[in-house]
Structures are given as C-alpha cells and as structure tokens.
C-alpha cells in the first residue's frame, strides 16, 4: 500500500507492506496494511506527514542513508537553533511516530537524543525563590492542589504520570516529614523520597488531605479542587501536567507555555545539582537508569559553572571552610573581612 504527501515541492512516497508467509492469507495481509495506514491521528495526520517530510528532505540534502542516533542528534540540534524546547518535543513526537510506521525505527530508544531534547529546555525550570514565593503568596482557596502537586513533584523529581497515580497509601505522615513511595511496576521496587517540614509544606499537604470527601471510593491522592473544596473525581494527566505553567502564569514569568509537566522533574534535578549533589545521588533520586541525563544537569548547573570559573579565573574554589571565633564582651572584633567568596554561610551561636 502506498500513499504520498506533497510539501515544499518535495514528494515523499511512504511504502509499507506486510509480507505474507505460509501462515497468513492475503485477507490478513491486506487488513494489516489498512490498519498500518490508520495508525496516525486522523485530524492531525497532515502535521505528522509534514514533520516527517521535512526530516526526509533534510536527510536527502545530507545524503543520509541510515537513520542513526547521530543523524537524529544532528537534525534536532540544527532545529534547536530556531525552535523552542516545546516545539522540538512536538516535532520529535511526530517524527518518531512516522519513523516507527514507515521505517520500523524506534528513536525513543536513542538515549543521547532524549538527553539532548531534555537539555534544550533547561532554561525553563523553577528557581527556589520562585517556588517559595508561589507557596507563600498564592491563595490556597484557588491554588491548594497546585501547591501540593508542586511540592511533591519537585521534592521527588516526579513524572506527571507518577503524580497522577499517587495514592493516599503511598504517603506516610510521620509528623515531622512525609515519606513518599513511587511504585515501579517493572522492578516492583518503589522509589522513596521525603518531604521535610520546611516552611508550611506539611501544613499545605495536610490541609488538602483533610478536604478529601469521605465517600471517595478510589485511593488516588489528587482530586479536582475548586473554591476550597475537593470533588471525588481524580485529577487527570493533562491537568497535572499544567501545574508548572499555572505557577509560571501566576508569577508572571515569560514563555508560560514552555513550562511543561517535565519542569517539576527538571527543577528537582537542577536544584540538587546547584546544591553540589553528585551524579549518582541525582540519578538515584530521580530514578534514571542512565547517567547521561543526570550528567547534563550537573554540567549545566550555574553553581557548578561558578565553581569552575573561580578555579580557572581566580584560582579559588568553593570548598567549605569552617572558622570558629570565640568572642567575649571584652573582645569584640570591629571588622571581619572576606575576599573572593561566594555562597558564604554565617552560623552565629550566641551563648549567654
């Protein structure tokens, strides 16, 4: 079976054919061919074909014969110069679907390509100051569910579907912290993280949980929330994925549409990297199998880049130095001077 799409004076013929073996009749083969032709979404099929057509044209111009991971990296790296992260992900999704159908190639198994696409959106992550500002200033009557999703999402580097499927049984409130388990259907070994009593985070969680209607039959944690009340309907993936954009909109940040559901996971990794956490810990915390993505966050960490800059340009490091000074009423220093310092923490212990 053949079909063709014309775009920008280029015609690409897509040919896909099920071969018949001794156990398959012509009727089965024809039915399989028809099914394959309908795998793309009907309404947006033209967009998928255009994205695939553009990729094929680029490959023809570069004399590409094999669609390897390096080829895809080069293609999307070139596109990253002109498109935002959200657009790149949309193009990737459409090209991926077409390559599976027309060429039997699954680019979702290209780890370096996925890592590159994730890093193109590194500019869109929440800063700790922005998170704190939203949690303290946004009205609970309107944003309580969003706040709880933000807290758990960043604390646990959670994927959108992990938050959607989180149940009340997965969270243990031990008084001074929340112990959260993220189930893993493949390994059966849950990923565990803790939310400590920082600010009013535990108070917000308990307030939201207290609004849960008693007649709810399921155990999903996140329920639709409006005007200070929870319904029995669980929150879906689309609503959960919009949490970062809702926060960005409230804070009046630029490019609100670029704050996708993945920003929670990305922000968590970035905050850890900025705090100097090692790759192994970040990888374990977020549940990544490969170190490629975790390495990207450490490499792109502003704090890490600052440390390197100090080592190269000034000859200093940001290693911790502890200095204890005993001060009495009769021995109070007038001046304490610090030079070439960043991220300095003063701990004052007053003994009366």
From TrEMBL:
Span of domain Tyr recombinase: 119-310
Keyword Hydrolase tagged: no
InterPro entries for this protein: DNA_brk_join_enz, Integrase-like_cat_sf, Integrase_catalytic, Tyrosine_recombinase_XerCD
Superkingdom of origin: Eukaryota
Keywords: DNA recombination, DNA-binding
Name this polypeptide is given: Tyr recombinase domain-containing protein
Lineage summary: Eukaryota, Metazoa, Ecdysozoa, Arthropoda, Hexapoda
């Amino acid at each position: 079976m053949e079909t063709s799409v014309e775009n920008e004076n280029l015609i690409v013929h897509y040919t896909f054919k099920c071969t018949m073996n001794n156990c398959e009749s012509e009727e089965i083969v024809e039915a399989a061919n028809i099914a394959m032709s309908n795998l793309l979404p009907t309404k947006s099929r033209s967009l998928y074909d255009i994205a695939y057509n553009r990729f094929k044209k680029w490959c023809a111009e570069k004399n590409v014969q094999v669609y390897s991971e390096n080829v895809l990296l080069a293609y999307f790296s070139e596109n990253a110069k002109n498109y935002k992260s959200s657009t790149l992900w949309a193009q990737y999704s459409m090209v991926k679907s077409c390559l599976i159908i027309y060429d039997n190639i699954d680019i979702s198994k290209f780890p370096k390509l996925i890592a590159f696409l994730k890093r193109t959106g590194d500019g869109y992550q929440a800063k700790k100051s922005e998170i704190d500002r939203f949690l303290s200033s946004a009205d609970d009557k309107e944003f309580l569910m969003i706040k709880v999703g933000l807290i758990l999402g960043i604390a646990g580097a959670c994927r959108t579907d992990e938050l959607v499927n989180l149940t009340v049984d997965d969270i243990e409130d031990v008084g001074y912290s929340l112990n959260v388990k993220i189930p893993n259907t493949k390994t059966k070994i849950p990923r565990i993280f803790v939310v400590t009593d920082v600010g009013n985070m535990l108070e917000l969680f308990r307030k939201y949980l207290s609004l849960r209607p008693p007649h709810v039959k399921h155990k999903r944690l996140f329920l639709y929330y409006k005007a200070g009340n929870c319904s029995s309907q669980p929150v879906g993936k689309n609503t959960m994925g919009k949490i970062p954009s809702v926060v960005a909109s409230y804070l009046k940040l630029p490019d609100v549409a670029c704050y996708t559901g993945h920003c929670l996971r990305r922000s968590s990794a970035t905050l850890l990297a900025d705090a100097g956490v090692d790759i192994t810990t970040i990888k374990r915390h977020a549940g990544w199998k490969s170190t490629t993505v975790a390495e990207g966050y450490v490499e792109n960490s502003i704090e890490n880049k600052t440390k390197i800059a100090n080592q190269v340009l000034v000859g200093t490091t940001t290693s911790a130095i502890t200095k204890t000074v005993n001060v009495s009423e009769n021995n109070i220093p007038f001046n304490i001077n610090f030079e070439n310092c960043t991220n300095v923490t003063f701990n004052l212990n007053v003994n009366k």
